[in-house]
User: Fold this.
Amino acid sequence: MTEQLITAQSALRPGMLRRVHHIALHVHDMNASRHFYGQILGLRELQGEEVPETLKALFEAGEAANFVTPDGTVIDLFWKPQLEPPDPDPGKEFTRAGHLAFDIDPALFDQAVDVLRQNQIPIDHGPVSRPTGRGIYFYDPDGFLVEIRCDPV
Assistant:
């Protein structure tokens, strides 16, 4: 009983963490990454007063950019011009993060795949169909694996 009590008091309860607040990515080419997340994926870039106060100096120097997903998750991009993956093959994972996944309405999935192909975005694999839905995996300009997925129809 004592062990259960200690564990319960030393852990967050389910539901205490409400959502992902932001994801920070280091990028080699800020312009390519801004184009990818803003123009290709259609995320809204934060501007002016929307930029967090703590990032304004980096934003004004062109060393940070912030995008927001429709559910409010912020993707922070930080310019690291010396950033190089340990291996030039993006298929070889080089980070502890596996991938970033975006959800899309099943009716729009094929359109998203067409956009990736039209923009010659490097596709790792897919589209794939699973009992949990469909997905396609592709790379951002820095070789980070990104997924667009949808629930089954």
About this structure: The longest strand covers residues 123-130.
